[in-house]
């Protein structure tokens, strides 16, 4: 059932009535009836709705038309365009002098079908009941009114039935209340509104459903938050496993990188001892050798610290960092692997780049994966130079652009669109997770990553990061 609200033009109902409304008005005077219906139809015409006014004594069609035209100056256009119809109750309800509820219901439904086919926003109608004979037609008319609730309940229809109080006794009033969703009464210039038991039950059910829906939304939101947290944890775990695996592949090269400053430490310490044991001791040369020992020891500490940071399992952090320094640290860690594969590295790191906000370890993982992939791709090249170019610059939005270009065999055309998909790999024995993890990391930092063909042989992998 549609719940779209329409402006009724009747103050007592808050000017809003839902489609599917079937309500009634008890009135005392001719003026009360006329004022109510004029505002009711004026509101409908102003909202591109089709309007049907079934007139009964004490009004004539001519009187109803004149009264409505005074409130709606362009009524003639609405009548000419067949958007407004004013007919008589005798023609609508009493064809052949008898009342047939089924015939009237069918006629209403057929008219609504034609109205809908013409694209109107909906249909509102009103009919008065002064024609109704309590003796001959009342019971049949009550059955007809009751049946209308089934007909219009899920349609873009609103029906207002009007009853003169002067001709309705207690029994008739109770019947009318029973067959309508709610009842309006205009007495002594004042409004009263009576909600039927069915309407109250429906409102209570709607309130209960809304409360249940709100509770389900809260529960679903909590579930999604938990699922999102679990997904982030899984991504963090996967990224950590990928880092550890990559560092494992580089263990020989990393060992060489660590051993160099340790060996330098031993050499310089030995030299310092010799200068101190000389006769006479050469304190200046000993001091120089000890200074070199400290430098070598600090270098070894830095290398080990970078290795520990990449291997360590820790929650993502958002720090301000300078991308060029992060890149140079990764290049230092991979120097042994690069040399082992006969690759020459060039860097073109732009100066004055904006600082970015991000997790240093995660971003270094992206750079590490791109460098290792490039080195592995070039290891397949038997002829020609193996060259790796790592560059940085500003992107069009003012952020940072990082590019890793190799001189390897390049990618097949079908690989460009799938390269960052999970489990897609171009390497024999590869799992296809490294670049997928890279994409997750870059996108989590508000950037994007993509592959493109280089001007020469090989492939360029690039990613952007917004400035902090």
Please write out the topology.
Blueprint lengths: L4 E3 L8 E3 L2 E7 L2 H16 L4 E6 L5 H11 L3 H6 L3 E5 H5 L7 H17 L5 E6 L9 H15 L4 E8 L5 H10 L2 E6 L2 E6 L1 H53 L1 H27 L5 H29 L7 E3 L1 H11 L1 H6 L3 E6 L6 E3 L1 H19 L8 E8 L5 E7 L27 H11 L4 E5 L5 E7 L3
Parallel strand pairs: 3-7, 3-8, 4-5, 4-6, 6-7, 11-13
Antiparallel strand pairs: 1-2, 8-9, 10-12, 13-14, 14-16, 15-16
Helix pairs in contact: 1-2, 5-6, 6-7, 9-10, 11-13, 13-14
Describe this structure in words.
The protein has 468 residues and is an alpha/beta fold. The chain has 3 domains: 5-195, P-loop containing nucleotide triphosphate hydrolases (Rossmann fold), CATH 3.40.50.300; 250-313; 315-468, Heat Shock Protein 90 (2-Layer Sandwich). The chain is built from 14 helices and 16 strands. It has helices at residues 30-45, 61-71, 75-80, 89-93, 101-117, 138-152, 170-179, 197-249, 251-277, 283-311, 323-333, 335-340, 360-378, 434-444; strands at 5-7, 16-18, 21-27, 50-55, 84-88, 123-128, 157-164, 182-187, 190-195, 319-321, 344-349, 356-358, 387-394, 400-406, 449-453, 459-465. Helix 6 packs parallel to helix 7 (170-179) and helix 9 (251-277) runs antiparallel to helix 10. 29% of the residues are buried.
